[in-house]
Amino acid sequence: MTTARPSLDPELQELLADMPLMSQLSPEVLAQIRPLSSMPVEPLLEGRAVDRREVTVAAPDGTPIPLSVFSPANSDRTAAPCVYWMHGGGMVMGDRFSQIDIPLEWLDEFGAVVVSVDYRLAPESTGTIPVHDCYQGLLWITDHASELGIDPARIIVAGASAGGGLAAGVTLLARDLGTPAIAAQVLIGPMLDHRNTTTSSLQYSNGPGVWTREMNGFGWRCLLGDLPDEEVPAYVSPALADDLAGLPTTYIDTGSAEVFRDEDTDYATRIWAAGGQAELHVWAGGFHGFDALYPQAPISATARRTRTAWLARLLRTNPAA
């Protein structure tokens, strides 16, 4: 029996029809597609007044973690907002330039400094390594706030897909460790729950779309191996967090036609239940990553514009954010 599920947005469905899709991942397939999982950043910087700087920060085990810093050129601002970006790729692919066009729009719009992190990928690096890599990058940003020309009270943690899950994990870490301050978190189709058993996960087994339940399971197995559920840290699988109180204001968006729909809406609901503030958008007919893959589609343009408008309200109504 075919599981009933929300249909794709008609324009997105037409665009997907011309794209070869797969529903499974394997180590062999991963080796083939990893080199294709990120586009070069240089074309995105053409025509933009942007200064780029490459740095590394040491992980707790001494491994160098690359960071890319993009700042508005010819700016003498000393209290700019900062967007700290974590890329997507199912925990197994991508790099710090993946989906970087999203936060670069906020550099254009708000004069934000954008910092993107190249966290280590599974299966080579497992467990808490990726989220701790991202946390080390956050500590570097706050330690160098004056040098970067940013206000340390205006750091926004953001990410898409796996990067959204890592952003949520970093925010939980910062809350529990008491530092550093995070003004807001933006979670775009975040990968939050390793259990992979929600209704939406089951609905999108074997597709349609670009990220299926089977691919999701592969990504989590690469990261966690056979670790029992009770031993999985909430910083890695944020849906496991018992308490979502004390988190910064949160933006979450997802598609109605994707694997992560239910874990994402549940996360927003639990933030509200804990007394926090979250804005949730479920885009009808959106598949996973639709706005990154097809940014010019009408539904994608609306999703991106809505996200930017939320950030504008945040920065306007709360100058300390």
The residue ranges in which pLDDT falls below 50 over 5 or more consecutive positions are: none
The strands making up the biggest β-sheet line up spatially as 1-2-4-3-5-6-7-8
From the N-terminal CA to the C-terminal CA, the straight-line distance is: 50 Å
**So how many helices?**
12
List keywords for this structure.
321 residues; alpha/beta; Rossmann fold; eight-stranded mixed β-sheet; 18% strand
Give the structure's gist in a few sentences.
The chain is about 35% helix and about 20% strand. With about 325 residues, it is of the alpha/beta class.
What report would you give on this structure?
The protein is α/β, with parallel strands linked by helices and 321 residues long. It has a single domain (12-317), classed as Alpha/Beta hydrolase fold, catalytic domain (Rossmann fold), CATH 3.40.50.1820. Helix content is 37%, strand content 18%. It is built from twelve helices and eight strands. It has helices at 10-17, 27-33, 42-45, 101-110, 129-143, 145-148, 162-177, 199-203, 213-224, 261-273, 290-293, 298-317; strands at 50-58, 64-72, 80-86, 113-117, 150-160, 184-188, 249-255, 278-283. Strand 5 (150-160), helix 7 and strand 6 form a beta-alpha-beta unit. The radius of gyration is 18 Å and the shape is globular.
Task: Describe the secondary-structure layout.
Blueprint: H1 10-17, H2 27-33, H3 42-45, E1 50-58, E2 64-72, E3 80-86, H4 101-110, E4 113-117, H5 129-143, H6 145-148, E5 150-160, H7 162-177, E6 184-188, H8 199-203, H9 213-224, E7 249-255, H10 261-273, E8 278-283, H11 290-293, H12 298-317
Parallel strand pairs: 3-4, 3-5, 5-6, 6-7, 7-8
Antiparallel strand pairs: 1-2, 2-4
